[in-house]
Every structure is written in C-alpha cells, then in structure tokens.
Amino acid sequence: MKEWSRARKIWVGTSLVLVLTVGTVVYKLADRYLIEHVEAVVTTTNAGTTVESAHATYDDMNYNSDNESISIKKVQTGSGSDMITYFVADVTLKNGTTLQTALADNKFGRNITENTSTIAENNNAILAINGDYYGFRNDGVIIRNGTLYRDEPVRDGLAMFQDGTMKSYDEKTVSSSDLLAQGVTNTFSFGPILLKDGQVTSDFEHVEIDTNFGNRSIQDANPRTGIGIIAPNHYVLVVVDGRSRNYSRGMTLNEFASLFQELGCTDAYNLDGGGSSTMYFMGNVINNPQGKQQERGVSDIIYVGA
C-alpha cells in the first residue's frame, strides 16, 4: 500500500510538472502569436469621404480622378500546374497625393489584425494591398504616416518619402531620426530588396527572411505582395496568387524581382506574402487570397485614398 501511495504521489507530481510545462509553452506561443499587445492607438481625422463604386472587370480595371490614376491588369502565364496568376496595379499620384498606410483597428502593436478589405473600407481606400505584417514581430523600424512607432533595426527596410519617392536601406546603418529628417513618411520592415537602381539585387535561391515560426524560408513559389517605383509618384503594386492548383502556383523571388524589372521599375521591395497577399479595389477583393478566396487578417495596409 505504501509503495502504491508513493508511486501515486510520483505520478501526480510528474503529471503536474508536465501540465505546467505544457501550459507555459502554450501561453508563450499564444502570447507571441495570438494575444493582442497594443502599443499605441491611432487617432484618425477621417472626414467620411465616400467612394462611388464603378463597374470593373477582373481583366481591366481603371480609376481616374484629379489626384490619382489607377490601372489594374490581371495577368495569367503558363498552363496547368505551372500557371501563374497575378495582378499589377499601375498607380500615378498627382497634386501632392501620396501613398498612405493604415493599421488594423487603428492600433499599433503585436497580433492586432483585420482583413485587408476591412482596413481599406474603414479608411475609404480606392486601392489597397497588405503591408509588411509588422505585428508578427517585435523588431524592425516602423514609421507610419510620419510617426515612429518602433525602432529596433535588424534588416533591410523600405522608406517612402513625402516627395513621392522610395528607396530601400539598411536599418542598422541609417537612424530613424535621419529618416524622419529626410522626409520619410512610412517605412516597411520585411524584404528582401528586389531591385535597386534597376538591377535585381541578388540570386534569391537561398533567402531566409527570419527564423520566426511560420516564416523561415520564402524563396520557393509562393503568393507574393510587392511594391515598385518607376518614377516619383508613379508606383507599381503587385499581388501574385498561389497555392491553387491549375490557377496559380505563385512566384519564386527570382521571378518576382524579374517581373518588377520587366515592368520598368527602378526599385522594388518584397512585402508580406503567403496567405496575407491581398489586393482590394473599389470595394472588392480582386485576387484569390490563400488560394480559396479567403482573406487572412493582417497588421497593416498600403493604400490610395479617395
């Protein structure tokens, strides 16, 4: 009986340690990937402008106003299991209009997400793509709409300027104060840099962005989101569908960089892809997120406003 009682105590003790260990691991994972950590609440001054919805087809979509010109093309290449489907938005901004950014739920922090379409609608966007999903990490240099939210330099970033230009840079060698002094309005921290001065920056066969869970190696064919620039205030936003048999296999990073070069861009930068890749236009998601027309919540968007 005493031996049985002792064995029982050992079993109970071992089980308790196991439960506590598993519980700790689960909590840490939830804290890292699920629990919202709000660091700042953004106050908006949205005047409530509405966008009149216009008829648009999936093959040729256009929007023109005094402030912006947008032309979107759906392109399909290849066939069968090698087919690639992608959307190219050619955007020219005029009269001081700039590309804008918005955060999920108007809050800055980790694990705060909304669908790209929801963020777009809340900000009266005409056109929007997902951003860099900054909330998946706790590092990087994050400036949005002229406000510095995070200053933990670790990788190659993208800076967008008030004068309608953009350039990639090394977060570790350029300070956030210098960026702001130079007129930077927004930065993105993902990568890699695809084009610099019209040239593909490297062979992307063995690129790893981070060692974060779920984001280890991205060189294979995947859904993609990226931004390029042809001239000041003339941008190209590209979303590639993927993971959908006989509709789109996605693109490799080499293919993605070459595409921006073919489109005439001088500089281009890779944003968050995979299930996040989404393009929204005039009230509709026009691509096929996650290969099943289902959006995934993201931290932020880049958009053209009304």
Description:
- By secondary structure, the protein is α+β, with helices and mostly antiparallel strands.
- It has one domain.
- It is 18% helix and 35% strand.
- The protein is built from four helices and 20 strands.
- The strands form five sheets. It has an eight-stranded antiparallel β-sheet with strand order 2-3-4-16-15-17-13-14, with helices on one face.
- A hairpin with a 3-residue loop joins strand 2 and strand 3.
- The chain starts with a helix and ends with a strand.
- About 9% of the residues have low confidence.
Features:
306 residues; alpha+beta; 8-stranded antiparallel β-sheet; 5-stranded antiparallel β-sheet; 20 strands; 18% helix; hydrolase; glycosidase; NAGPA; Phosphodiester glycosidase family protein
Report the β-strand fraction as a percent range: 25-35%
Unreliable spans: 24-29, 44-58, 211-216
Order of helices and strands: HEEEEEEHEEEEEHEEEEEHEEEE
Counting DSSP E segments of at least 2 residues, the number of strands comes to 20
Oligomer: single chain
Distance between the termini: 79 Å
GO molecular function, one term: hydrolase activity, acting on glycosyl bonds
Domain Phosphodiester glycosidase: 123-304
Protein name: Phosphodiester glycosidase family protein
Pfam families: NAGPA
